[in-house]
Amino acid sequence: xxxxxxxxxxxxxxxxxxxxxxxxxxxxxxxxxxxxxxxxxxxxxxxxxxxxxxxxxxxxxxxxxxxxxxxxxxxxxxxxxxxxxxxxxxxxxxxxxxxxxxxxxxxxxxxxxxxxxxxxxxxxxx
Length: 126
What we know:
single chain; about 130 residues; alpha+beta; 2,3-Dihydroxybiphenyl 1,2-Dioxygenase, domain 1; eight-stranded mixed beta sheet; 2 helices
């Protein structure tokens, strides 16, 4: 078996759902037993650990209707910069260059032909 390529998708790290009222959604998920890992309604974003993956909730309040999506799928890759280069070489237009985030991941976003958002990321702790 050969070594995986730097741009190989290793796993789905998280799914992000957009919600209209983050306070109501947080109350719902926490009443079901989801344990908050990061964020809160005051940040506009909440992360719950679900096994080895995450469920994120993102508030749509204040986001212009044309910029709203159903959410995002976050895929882990070995090398975020190599995946970004692959996307560019395929003629795609990522929404940003790779960057390090305060929550401990390096990532960039890319929309598929139907507008679904994909995020390619890697934990900075690895």
